[in-house]
Write a structure and sequence with these properties.
single chain, 149 residues, alpha+beta, globular
Length: 149
C-alpha cells in the first residue's frame, strides 16, 4: 500500500502538472477522467483538495472510488464527505462546480463494481488488499437529479 507521504506527493505532482501545463495536461489518468475534488475538512473546517479519477460517469455525475490504494483505512477525502457532502469539482480546467457527494448503497455498489473494475482493473487489486469494502461515491451537480436507467 502506498504510504501517506506517497499519496500526498502524487497529489502534489498531479496538481503541479496541471499548473505547469496551464491546464492542458493531467486531466486524464489511466484512460479515466481526472478531477480536482475540494471537500471541507471534518476537523479543521478548511478546504481540502485532492486529485481523483472517475472510472464511470452518469451524465454530468461522476463516480469516484475511495480506494486509497487498498489501504485498510478510508481516505481523508471520504471521511470529509461523510461529514459534509457539499463539495466542489474541477474538470478539464473549467471553473469549479458545486456538487453533492453521496456514498452509493450496497446494492448500487454491487451493480457498478464490475463496470468500475472492468474499466480499471487496479481497483479489484486494491479491494483484494483490504478487508474493508471500498466505497463508491457519486458526485452529482447541485440541483441535478441523476437517473441511472
Amino acid at each position: 500500500m502506498p504510504s501517506r507521504f506517497t499519496l500526498v506527493a502524487m497529489n502534489v505532482m498531479h496538481r503541479a502538472l496541471i499548473g505547469v501545463s496551464s491546464g492542458h495536461a493531467g486531466w486524464t489518468v489511466a484512460g479515466m477522467p481526472a478531477l480536482k475534488l475540494t471537500t471541507t475538512g471534518r476537523r479543521s473546517g478548511r478546504p481540502r483538495v485532492t486529485m481523483l479519477t472517475s472510472p464511470y460517469q452518469i451524465g454530468d455525475a461522476l463516480v469516484v472510488v475511495a480506494s486509497r490504494g487498498g489501504d485498510d483505512h478510508h481516505p481523508a477525502w471520504f471521511l470529509n464527505i461523510a461529514a459534509d457532502g457539499d463539495v466542489r469539482v474541477v474538470r478539464d480546467g473549467h471553473p469549479a462546480v458545486p456538487m453533492r457527494a453521496r456514498v452509493l448503497s450496497d446494492a448500487e455498489r454491487a451493480e457498478l463494481w464490475p463496470t468500475v473494475t472492468a474499466r480499471y482493473p487496479g481497483y479489484a487489486t486494491y479491494q483484494g488488499r483490504t478487508d474493508r469494502v471500498i466505497p463508491l461515491v457519486l458526485l452529482e451537480p447541485v440541483g441535478v437529479a441523476t437517473d441511472r436507467r
